[in-house]
Amino acid sequence: MKFKKALITGITGQDGSYLAEFLLKKKYIVHGIKRKSSSFNTSRIDHIYANKSFKNKFFLHYGDLLDPNSLTDLISKIKPDEVYNLAAQSHVGVSFQLPNYTSQVNSIGTLNLLHAIYDCRLASKTKFYQASTSELYGEIQESRQSEKTSFYPKSPYATSKLFAYWITKNYRESYKMFASNGILFNHESPRRGETFVTRKITMGISKIIHGLEKCLYLGNIYSLRDWGHARDYVEMCWKVLQYNKPDDFVIATEKQYSVKFFVEQCFKYLGIKIKWSGTGLKEYGKIINCNFEKYSSLKKNMVVIKISNKYFRPNEVNNLIGNASKAKKLLKWKPKTNIHQLIKEMMDTDLEYTRKLKLK
Ligand code: NAP
Ligand code: G4F
């Protein structure tokens, strides 16, 4: 039996790790590109590497989106059936501090990868998935954003992803490549990077519970997002490439919550009641009630959330909510995990992680 071969860029990231697991379960041979780093950067995929049943099915290679030679070299050797381009400088806030670098990696990096496939004369064989983003909608032009909604990017990150979105379509049209965009709304998990807001919250609360921190500092808590689970969304990346033609798909839960709501629900899940007071930079959240015997680090009226100027962006995307009816209809998709299940999984994992951290 001939197994399909997939090449994943960004395999060491949140989505890359879930996608690798998903494809291996589907009997793919999975190749991943990892960057050279001065410290270990494979913690999200070490368990896959250690799994004996994936021996000779899972391979890691050094490479970088900014090193076209490494991409051509790998693609010519592997000859993948499917390439998933998940690699990016993916932090919107950081992109304001690293606009040039972000643009190089996210825009030119995507071009480098597409062109490597073309150069290796694999344009008619290899399917290409581009990790596009709801950040493209930025200053929203329609109350629910679909594939037909106009883009209005508001950060160097979003602008760089706009180039990547269009160059993907361009290679589809010019060279008849099966090149598709998944326009994914925010998706989270216990493997989310610790500086993205949901994970920052679940990790921050866990550290407060275990007495490792006193207070969590956040930026714009009135920002609204459509949050799904990364595990559900990587299945969609795969489905996008199994569709009968290359196309672009919005993937979203179609439900929207604020950052403030996410904070409240995390505390609520733990049986802790908080109260908000103040406004603007002076807004704060304090503990009103909980089982103080169980949570010995907490005290009544303890201020656990404060607002810091540091976490506001020069240009904010305030409001995102997707319309995923195309994917629901054509790819037969519906999200499996709701916000409360997501919070439970993230809180449970981070509480256990910080409990062990405290024992060290
Ligand atoms: P992530 O956790 O930040 O992972 C990014 C990955 O890209 C990491 O493996 C990183 O390697 C790698 N990378 C960065 N620069 C690279 C370079 N120059 N060459 C090769 N690899 C490089 O991101 P994610 O949340 O999994 O998201 C995956 C993709 O989907 C990204 O393109 C992101 O922009 C996009 N996206 C994400 C969301 C979301 O809500 N998560 C929504 C829409 C779109 P290191 O581990 O070495 O840093
Ligand atoms: O978690 P975030 O940093 O994610 P953001 O900016 O929505 O971007 C993520 O989702 C995109 C899809 O729409 C991806 F393309 C992108 O790669 C990334 O995965 O911030 C969410 C919201 C923002 O409005 C931010 O201003 O939360 C607000 N926020 C409030 N306080 C904060 C904080 N964000 C962070 N990171 N840290 C805070 O302290």
Describe the structure.
The chain is α/β, with parallel strands linked by helices. The protein has 11 helices and 15 strands. It has helices at residues 14-25, 46-50, 68-78, 92-97, 99-119, 156-175, 197-209, 230-242, 259-269, 325-330, 339-359, and strands at 5-9, 29-34, 58-62, 82-85, 127-133, 179-184, 187-188, 216-218, 224-225, 228-229, 248-251, 257-258, 273-277, 284-289, 303-307. A 7-stranded parallel β-sheet has the order 3-2-1-4-5-6-11, sandwiched between helices. Strands 8-15-14-13 form a 4-stranded mixed β-sheet. Strands 7-10 form a two-stranded parallel ribbon. β2, α2 and β3 (58-62) form a beta-alpha-beta unit. α1 (14-25) crosses α8 and α5 runs parallel beside α6. The longest helix is centred in the first third of the chain and has 21 residues, at 99-119. It is globular. The mean pLDDT is 97. The structure holds NADP nicotinamide-adenine-dinucleotide phosphate (NAP) and ligand G4F.
